[in-house]
Write a structure and sequence with these properties.
Layout lengths: L1 H23 L1 H37 L3 H26 L3 H33 L1
Helix pairs in contact: 1-2, 2-3, 3-4
């Protein structure tokens, strides 16, 4: 909860500062928005480390193959990065770039999930 409060404080402070700066220098406002986003995301890195440890423990206890767990984690990471980058593009007034980032993120997530799909297809073929 304290990490969320830190991230929220960084985000709101950065957003207010970006709005103030944006009036006189729009490009600096965008830079401030990017800096606030990166600072708030850096706070979350600590939680992702804890999440990685729990996922590793669960994988070891259940006997799941890394080929099953890894694509899921990659897709989550791709989703987070895509969302942040898309929102920053939108903040900069670049809707087309935001859409391109979202499209690329979807393609990357599908690519990251391919090993999981291959495993599923292989499992189905072994059953028949």
């Amino acid at each position: 909860m304290t990490l969320l409060m830190k991230a929220a404080a960084l985000g709101v402070t950065g957003a207010v500062a970006a709005l103030i700066i944006k009036r006189s220098a729009p490009e600096l406002g965008l830079a401030m928005s990017i800096a606030a986003t990166l600072a708030a995301a850096a706070v979350a890195v600590e939680l992702f480390g804890q999440l990685r440890d729990v996922v590793t423990m669960a994988r070891e206890q259940t006997g799941l193959s890394p080929a099953v767990v890894s694509p899921v984690l990659k897709c989550v990471g791709i989703g987070v990065v895509t969302r942040l980058a898309s929102d920053l593009c939108k903040d900069g007034g670049q809707g087309a770039a935001a859409s391109a980032v979202e499209l690329c993120g979807a393609a990357c997530a599908m690519g990251a999930a391919l090993p999981l799909v291959r495993s599923l297809l292989q499992m189905i073929s072994e059953l028949t």
